[in-house]
Amino acid sequence: MTDTTSTTDSRTARRSPHETDTLPPDIAQRARRLLVDLARPERKGYIALAFLLLAFGIGNAIGPAFIAQAMDQGIPAAIDGDTAALAVPLIVFLLVTILTGVADFFGTRMTGTLAQRLMVALRKRLFGHVQKLGISYHERSTSGRLVARQTSDMENIQVFLTGSLQEMAIGLTAMGAIAVTLIVMDVRLAIVVFLGFIPLLAVSIASNRAQRRNQRRTRTAIAKVIVHIVETLGGIRAVQSFRREDANIRHIVHEDSEYRNATAASLRNVAWFAASTRLIGNLSMAAVLLVGGWLVIGDTLQIGMLTAFLLYVRRFYGPLDELVQAVTMYQSASAALEKITAVLDAAPEVVEPTSPTPLPARGGFRGEGEPGRLPEGGDGHRPATSGDDRDLGGGRLVEFDDVEFAYGDGVPVLPRFDLTIPAGQTVALVGATGAGKSTLVKLLTRFYDPTAGRVRLDGVDLRDVADADLRAAAVMVTQESYLFGGSIAENIRIGRPDASDEDVRVAAHAVGLTPFIEQMPDGFATDVRKRGGRLSSGQRQLVSFARAFLADPDVLVLDEATAHLDIPSERQVQEALATVLEGRTAVIIAHRLSTVEIADRVLVMEAGRIIEDGAPGVLIDSGGRFARLHSAWEDSRA
Q1: Residue ranges covered by each domain of the chain
Q2: What is the pTM (predicted TM-score) of this model?
Q3: Position 235 pLDDT exceeds 80
Q4: pLDDT, mean of residues 55-84
Q5: HSE toward the beta carbon, residue 600, CA cutoff 13 A
Q6: Fold of 387-476+553-637
Q7: Alpha-carbon dihedral 44, 47, 52, 55, rounded to 10 degrees
Q8: What is the Cα–Cα distance from 506 to 493, expressed in whole angstroms?
Q9: Are 438 and 448 a contacting pair, CB within 8 Å?
Q10: Which CATH superfamily does the domain covering 26-345 fall into?
């Protein structure tokens, strides 16, 4: 078997998987590498776009030169009767203007197309990566932060790529082409123009540093606002039940004030930069006019050349207003991309093996017909069996070998222990809250890896099993009973996407959902609405049971899965469980000891340790902890 423990440890040690507000110092370089990586598949398109932008910049640069030629040479020649000397530069200027417009059109179109492709790739990568991050990451990072990464941060990047990026590229290209043209036309006036670059460069560097800080602060602030909104709307029932509306408003006003202050600081910086660049541009224009006028008076410069220079200076500093806005959007997009990069840089604590070991072939009783089909008796159910009469030949062998587990760097939740669950056995975990029951089943389903030791399935370390194989072999049903928007059938079919309609009906019938579904207006096609809001908590739980049954796993884990069921629904599920658990390995967590009645074995846990282990009847007769719990439960039913 492949030992992946060291790989997992090294990846975990490389960086924490939990995103914080303080980003690492090299995050800007990582963000740029991410952008280059995303753009690489479209490099031919970006090369073509670069040529279009270059053509646009050159067209803008050479246009005024033809105006100067027309004024200095064409007009005097036309006065002498040579109209062609005036017409030619004007016609060329018109053609250059048209070609520049065409380059601008196709450049804008290509910019939008390439930007959308890059955004699709970025969204896909981020969404896919977030789904691969372990439960530990999602338990420590609020969903609001991830929503902010997928929404507002993505929007800022998209706005920059589809508009501001082109404006910045065109402005810089035009300024570069004009700079070269100025030098060719007259070095003396070019030096006058370029002297304005000294203060302009200083202002740009100072503004860029301040804007980067402001935009990082802005992205962090708006993320906190989104976090609060998501948490409030997600817990709206608790908010209204405990009248938290006013407190939530005060909280969001406080969070939003930080966003307001950060945005105001950014706008002040933009205003300062814009005013400074305009002042520098106007002073440069005045200096060119002063020096150029002196040269014209001295008869060392023609008036047409001075006119062209003034047009160039206007065009040279004209894009600065757009560049100010583009740079602001660049800083905002850069800060957003850094936040996204931080999420993409988070290494999953539970990693899939590079060379997975296949699980042994499935064995034991699986019933008749296709996988996942539940053979029906006269009443639509398989005959239930229990206790010593059950067939334990199916399922898979589960082993905890010298396992220890701690969350993060904390105290071990599960001290070192060994546990073997034979294939096909149903085990009930009993104990007080915090005893370690849920942690044990999370290790079994590999939502976490043990801190020490190994968890095996049919002798194969779970760290060596491919994710797809493990998820097919072991399925967990929790008390959350989460349903996705869509029909009842679609939610059941999540257990096995390729299941037929008949398979879905059989699974629903096995858990007793059929009578309820038949009463719905559209039957199996009935939309359950957001989070299954159209169904009661018990009905949602039954749908999640049907989903798991359809998946037909070798190991079925029920984490307090009957907690939200009323007594009639619970009895209904108990009957279904007795049927469906047959021939599978099952681990059941239940505070209601009624579930224990179908178990072959009970494990009583306390402080992460197994303090009692045995058949239900044996433990009841022993007079220990389980016997006392069972007696208290019996008294509560009286």
Answers
A1: 26-345, 387-476+553-637
A2: 0.68
A3: no
A4: 77
A5: 23
A6: Rossmann fold (3.40.50)
A7: -140
A8: 12
A9: no
A10: ABC transporter type 1, transmembrane domain (1.20.1560.10)
